[in-house]
Amino acid sequence: MLVLLPPSEGKAAGGSGAPLKPQSLSLPGLAPARAAVLEELVELCAGDELKAREVLGLSEGLRGEVAKNAALRSAPARPAGEIYTGVLYDALGLADLPPAARELAERSLLVFSGLWGAVRIGDRIPSYRCSMGVKLPGLGALGAYWRGPMAEVMPQAAAAASAGSAGGGLVLDLRSAAYGAAWKPKGELAGRTATVRVLHAQVVDGVEKRSVVSHFNKATKGRLVRDLLITGSAPASPAELVTALRDLGYVVEAEAPAKAGKAWSLDVVVSQIH
Fold it and tell me: Among 86, 82, 45, which Cα is nearest to 65's?
């Protein structure tokens, strides 16, 4: 099973660890692209602060993020699973996973990033600010920039994560649209990919109404990944994922693709998050 996650907008401070070692990051095929983005981002943020804030979409209150980016090469690094914070990662609770679940998380989870392309939770990175929606002056829109490098490395990453799984293994895609633009599974791989939408169900005047609410969406995605990891679930296909989630108590409505080579769409319906 390979689980694709978005990063968090906010990130924990880097602490006091050793600085980034780019050669140590997973998915080494992304190294040249990472180096190019890092070089331009550092150069941008070491120059005109107003221009950097405009490019990165940062308010006056976030001007400190520019200086942080300018120092990325020397900034302390820590595991990506500790850098990314926010609702999804709070619900996922990587820090207190049991050992077996933590080991599965390190093999299965990939966090997409405007700066790094994608990293595993054990990869040591500095705290940074650069979303996939950023358009750098030289490299252009990062969502488009990453498509070529990702197309080269992601099929291999999916194959490695699912080695030994009957049918090739599941890809569980929990990314937001901006990060999904950087890589879309194709062909046979798309057919064993499942995307998840979380719907908040409320009864209004006796009628159930459903809506997409950011908090419920992020928290539920984090919680269901945690539950899969703790139970050691290894669904090999979207259909097996539906069964696994229902066994865990989730209300799941699944739509199989009408054509071969298309991803499955799953709706997880929630009324309350505890």
Answer: 45
- What pLDDT, on a 0 to 100 scale, did the predictor assign at position 247? 96
Helical ranges in the chain per DSSP H: 31-46, 49-56, 64-70, 80-83, 87-92, 99-108, 142-145, 147-161, 177-180, 187-191, 214-231, 238-247
pTM attached to this predicted model: 0.93
The rounded distance, in Å, linking the Cα atoms of 246 and 121 is: 27
Q: Please report which residue ranges of 60-174 form alpha helices under DSSP H.
A: 64-70, 80-83, 87-92, 99-108, 142-145, 147-161
Distance between CA 132 and CA 115 in Å, rounded? Answer: 8
One-letter identity of residue 128:
Y
Residues of the chain below pLDDT 50: none
**Mean pLDDT taken over the chain:** 92
φ, ψ of residue 225 to 5 degrees: the values are: -65, -45
Measure the CA–CA gap between 110 and 168, rounded to whole angstroms: 18
Write out the residue range of the structural domain in which residue 216 sits.
Answer: 2-270
What is residue 250's three-state secondary structure?
coil
Q: How many domains does the chain have?
A: 1
